[in-house]
Structure formats: C-alpha cells, structure tokens
Write a structure and sequence with these properties.
Layout lengths: L6 E4 L2 H8 L12 E4 L9 H10 L4 E4 L13 H14 L3 E5 L2 E4 L2 E7 L5 H18 L4 E3 L14 H12 L2 E5 H11 L3 H6 L6 E7 L2 E2 L7 E2 L8 H14 L4 E4 L7 H15 L2
Parallel strand pairs: 1-2, 1-12, 2-3, 3-4, 4-7, 7-8, 8-9, 9-12
Antiparallel strand pairs: 5-6, 10-11
Helix pairs in contact: 1-2, 4-5
Length: about 280
C-alpha cells in the first residue's frame, strides 16, 4: 500500500514491547508508525532495541516536539545532532516538528508556545528550518499548531505564514486537522476558509486527534490528544481528502492512551476515507 493512501498510528510506550515482539511474519498492525523522536535519543538499551525491531518491519515517522523551530536564539546544536543520528539510524519516511518555540537560554519548556505571524518571526523560523534540513540532509514537515490566542502585531494570517515558509525553505506542511478545528473554534475563524488558502501540493501529511472542552472556560477547546477523533474533525477530514486527494494520515493519541485495538479502529475509519 502506498503511504499516500495509508493511515498510521502513533507508537507509544504502552504498545512498544507488544509491537517489537510481533513475529516477523505477522500481519502488520498498521501501514506505518510515528514515534516522538525525543523518546529515543539514547545510545542503547532495550527501548532502542525494540525500536530497531519495529523499524525493521514498519515505515517510521520521526515527529519531534523539541526542535523549537521558532526559537529566536537558534536551534540547540547538541539536540539537533542527536536527532540527526536517530534519523540516520532508522531512515524514517517522514521527519516533522511544530510551528512553535519551546526553548530559551538553554532551558527546554514542556510546551509548544505560539509565535506572532510577523516578518521577523518568519525570518527566524525559515532560518531554523533550513538549519534542521541541512543537519538531517532531507526536507522536514512543519505542523499547523493549536492556538488559544492571537497577537495584535501580526503581519499575516497563519496560512500565509506557512505558504511563505514553504516557498523560502522547501519544507512541507503537516496539516493537523484537529489543531485547525480547535483554533477555529477558539479564535472564531472558519476552518474551511483556512484550508482553502493552503495550496494542496504543500500538504504532505495529515494528523487526526481528539480534543476536550476546557473545564474552566465553556468557549475554549483544548488539544488534549486524549480522546477519539471528534465527529466534526472526521467531517473536516472527509471534506479535505475529497478536495486535495489522499495524504498519509496519522491517528495521534498521547494521553490516556487506550489499548492498541482502539487505535487501530480509529485508523481503519481514516483508511476507509482514504480508500474512497
């Protein structure tokens, strides 16, 4: 099966041993798997051995959460080198990170923080993306964020920021439809209008995940990755695939991780959409 018509699932610690122990001739659980890169920046040991066993049978995507592509101080050279080593070792099908920043003065923060969509921020992100692509010797994908606020000094909207970033760096877009739905609800824009502004040829991969309403603010959705994909996100996915054609798709579930068969049931639903 071509990955362009395939839905994968996130490889989480709870399922790593199970997948690593599969017989080599067993039918594959999913067409491809995504790892959080930073979970495997180790020199050896059982976790890396299990990843190697899984990567021998499955295409792997390396999805980073700590490159801090929006960092004004530039990328952490040591971290960049460790990610490059892992990429060279397992030769993933995709490499990606987020349009965000999460590091300053050598301190890595446990969050994906937003950027103002300004020319200065674009210059920073473009510089960092080019540096990452040079270190990895390959293009990367940059993920659309979930947002909870806007900046008054923005020079452009988010789709325009992404279009200019792709034009300057040659990177691709990882379209997280859950994030776009959450942002549209929180900030009051139309998700369909947003998606129509992004040229389909720039979209290389799609993420689907679950959200939850804020326990404090009734007019706020939180990108929790702790639930099944919501019905309105499924509907947005179906319309997006009908418009742009099939793209590699991932079911992303990071918190309150369920049994593997729950993830594969979500995967099969997306697979049906891709197969239409």
């Amino acid at each position: 099966m071509s990955l362009s018509r395939a839905c994968g699932i996130g490889l989480r610690t709870a399922h790593l041993a199970q997948l690593a122990a599969e017989a080599k001739d067993a039918s594959l659980t999913a067409p491809w798997l995504e790892i959080h890169t930073e979970n495997f920046l180790i020199d050896g040991g059982p976790r890396l051995a299990m990843l190697n066993a899984v990567a021998a049978r499955y295409p792997i995507s390396c999805h980073s959460v700590a490159l801090s592509l929006g960092s004004a101080q530039g990328l952490d050279k040591r971290h960049l080198a460790r990610v490059a080593d892992l990429i060279a070792r397992i030769k993933p099908a995709f490499v990606s990170d987020h349009l965000s920043w999460s590091a300053v003065d050598g301190i890595h923060l446990n969050d994906l923080l937003p950027l103002p969509y300004t020319e200065a921020a674009l210059n920073t992100v473009a510089r960092n993306v080019l540096e990452a692509q040079e270190a990895f010797d390959r293009r990367i994908l940059v993920e659309t964020p979930s947002r909870y606020l806007t900046f008054e000094n923005a020079d452009m909207d988010e789709p325009e920021f992404f279009k200019r970033l792709v034009a300057r760096t040659g990177c691709g877009i990882l379209l997280d439809l859950n994030n776009i739905h959450v942002s549209a609800f929180n900030l009051g824009f139309n998700a369909e209008d947003y998606l129509r502004k992004i040229p389909p040829q720039m979209i290389e991969e799609i993420h689907l995940a679950g959200y939850a309403p804020s326990p404090v603010h009734s007019d706020l959705l939180i990108d929790t990755h702790s639930r099944p994909v919501a019905g309105d996100v499924w509907a947005l996915y179906e319309r997006t695939i009908a418009r742009i054609g099939p793209r590699p798709t991932l079911i992303e579930w990071d918190n309150d991780v369920p049994a593997l068969d729950v993830l594969t049931a979500e995967m099969r639903r997306a697979q049906r959409v891709l197969s239409l």
